[in-house]
Design goal:
The chain is α+β, with helices and mostly antiparallel strands and 191 residues long. Helices cover 28% and strands 26% of the residues. A hairpin with a 2-residue loop joins strand 2 and strand 3.
């Protein structure tokens, strides 16, 4: 297995925010063209990177930072390490098909599983824990949507996947739970 060192994220420039809102959309159809490492770095930093000392680009309740991003590429499954700006390889098999019930998920270049480590959340009721992890997933997902809109990529967030199979494939601990999965890829010629 081999980790992927990402290039430094490009944190300046891009399209104006209001233009990104105008282009923000869900698209399930993507070409099979791989996403280059610079776009992956930019996208993951936008999603849940560190933008100042100890704080991320997406908020979390009490800054617990309980979310983890598992990246499914053709080359394998990786855990996004924001502080090291790298992808830590967890599996060298192509497991993209496990990320959803829809046919396109096996072909889309990148699927991102949002995994919450609920052991980091204390002082909340079980309902409060669920609310927290899904709200935090929403913050991260929307950052991905806005980056994709600005970079000309397609994306869609999805809830249709087999949690048990995907959790087993990722070898998650009982206190880790997958909230959602998001697909990202280049547009097809026909949208």
């Amino acid at each position: 297995m081999k980790d992927i060192i990402l290039p430094p994220p490009e944190t300046a420039g891009g399209i104006p925010l209001m233009e990104a809102f105008g282009k923000r959309a869900s698209h399930r159809k993507c070409s099979e063209k791989a996403i280059d490492l610079q776009d992956i770095s930019n996208l993951l930093w936008s999603a849940y990177g560190f933008n100042r000392d100890g704080f991320r680009t997406a908020p979390s309740s009490h800054n617990r930072q309980e979310m983890e991003l598992y990246i499914f590429l053709k080359s394998g499954v990786y855990l996004y390490d924001a502080s090291g700006n790298r992808l830590i390889q967890k599996s060298d098999g192509d497991l993209r098909a496990l990320t959803g019930a829809q046919d396109f998920v096996a072909e889309v270049p990148m699927n991102i599983a949002f995994v919450a480590d609920t052991s980091k959340i204390t002082g909340k009721t079980p309902q409060g824990v669920l609310e927290t992890i899904f709200v935090d997933t929403g913050f991260i997902s929307e950052n991905i949507y806005l980056y994709a809109a600005g970079a000309g990529l397609n994306t869609v967030i999805r809830a249709m996947f087999d949690r048990e199979k995907l959790s087993a494939a990722l070898k998650l601990r009982p206190e880790q739970t997958i909230t959602m999965v998001q697909s990202v890829g280049h547009p097809t010629l026909k949208q």
